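Session log. Operator J.P. requested a structure for one protein chain; no other inputs attached. Running the standard single-chain path with token output.
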Amino acid sequence: MSEAGVSAPTSQWHWRFLKFSRQLWVRTSFFAFMAVATALLALAVKPYLPSGIGTGMGAESVDSLLNILASSMLAVTTFSLGIVLSAFGSAASHVTPRAARLLMEDTATQNALATFLGAFLFSIVGIIALKAGVYGENGRLVLFVVTIAVIVVIVVTFIRWIEILRTFGRMGDTISRVEKATRESFAARLASPCLGGNPLLEAIPDDAVPLMSSRTGYVEHLDMGRLSGCAETHDTDIYLAALPGSFVHLSAPLAWVRSRGNLELPAEEIEAAFTIENHRTFEQDPRFGITVLAEIASRALSPAVNDPGTAIDVIGRGVRLLSGWTEKGDAESTYPRLWVKPIRAAEVFEDFFRPISRDGASLVEVQIRLQKALLALAQCGVTGFPEAARKQSREALERAEAALVVESDREILRELSEKVLAIPDSHPAPDPGI
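Structure written below.
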């Protein structure tokens, strides 16, 4: 996947470059270009080699080697591409379509496909140049040496590729990728709780003016540095209403702008800092990863799949992720003119636990694990967790009591829920969020 970092929010151009570089065809095209350039390198090097150096060193066998590479690499590339596409389809149909994007952006898979295709093009260019007679004896020697190096790279890549294919696209591997991407997104948000801005804990000032979106879609990225520069230039305070992951439309405000002077509000400049696309992404949106995990569990609990074990596994992963909330980063403001509403524990708990408690209401084993997970999180000592856990525990118990038919099952869940409800708030202060 995901290559999301844990540093400060990236600029828009940097984020767009990273997103562009993760596309499969980009890396493949780069490897293909390097392969062609390598095959032509012999033409530039041969004038500097002593005459006759290639005699007796096996350079004449380069024709056979290139022919073998050309035929085998085409077959390997086609075969590997078929496996990759099958894995994408399997992840989309059996896990969730939202997780398939992580498989598409996997660098190891892209490197393998790019290497195989690059080797094929290298061999084709080499064969054409040999048949045209442009190499000569010394050029053939250079091409022979480079071909041996390419074969070594292919062998190493193929061994790694076999290991990748052992789990690529399977349920466990895909869920682990979602967990990893979510953990990285959470770590980035914990390091910069309000994306570098001030925490927006109170009401927006009455004299702030709403800035409406001119587009409809999800906010994929927010360039905080660009917004801060705009606020400094125009002497304004900006209260963000839409964060990465928010769905915006023509009647939804992106931000509220409060001018300190008489300058005209920079509406176009502010909106340009919001990247609005058709889909949510993991990088700046921790709640999306949590939502995807809950979706995986819900799909596993559907009557068509009936796999409570996967749902229980996802609950455990959710506890592991949310337990990292305790590792707070420095909340000092980097952009003093920007105000950002932090993510609340109650929101994240609702994203994760509500779908699972709804779809697993009739499965006592799922409900038991869910109540134990809530108890564990309530005891973490994180501000806001006990209150959020109590709310979800009550709702889960209510759904389970309506769905379960055996009284003993209900009694077990009542006892577990009472333990959750008995956990007091660890801190009287309001939840600062992340």
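Operator note: Residues 1-8 have pLDDT under 50 and may be disordered.
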